[in-house]
Amino acid sequence: LPTCPTGVTLLVYGQESNTPSISFMNEKGADVNLGEGGEHSLLFYNNDTEYIVISDLGTLPQARASTTGRSRSSLTKIAELHPDERTINPPDVLFASFVKDVPEIGLHQSAPLPVRMQPLVYTYIIRYEFEHGVEHVALARGALAGMAESVYLRNGVTSEQSATLLYDCELTEFGAMAKVRSFGVPGFPDEYYGRAPRNNQSRLYTLNLEVRLSNGKTKEFTFDITPQLEKQPRGGIITVTGVRVEDNENLSDSGFDVTVDDWGEHEDIDLPIGGQQ
What we know:
The chain is mostly beta strands and 277 residues long. The chain contains 2 helices and 19 strands.
């Protein structure tokens, strides 16, 4: 389960202007001066994140969270199936809350305002179950394509634009696994669990596994997991079976050092500069 956030950002939107004022507080809350000008709308989100990028805060309906970019040029099959997708890091744990109307409070007066922060990021447990040859695998990493690139902070709806999540895997006795955070599937209009997802048959969800063998060679696997994602729009368990590495594929040990992090194609991470946008 995600831990309690350690920092919260509050944006206050007035009726006469969409330019918000910004306050920062801890997870227990704080006294905030909303100023004058009638009713206000409030937007809260936790700010103790590493990969989350917040944008379009000046226009409340468009305020959204995305994550940093990351490239992996070895994803040839994913690039063919999802040619328009950006490759990204999995997002951090993210919570948000929106209060539409807060009545004007008189001078020298105060009023308590309980706020429930709702999760906007969900976890998929991904299992790659090997049928043969797991003992030949030294390192593994994966990709999950077709997922939402961003989420709108005001209502929790995910964007229609899709992206590919890149992540490392842990080797297990059955093969490999990963816990991957995501905004969920694109175009999911749940309004915090209020509505069911649309049945969009045109979307494709693809899972990738790339393994580095102990002889230094790499092998790539691709799986169509559309039926699994259609039933699990925000978090769940994804399982693929029958993965094989044949014994003759791991012949001629090259002496490659499998303990290094930068194996195979180099990965670039696009970090945001200058804080929030």
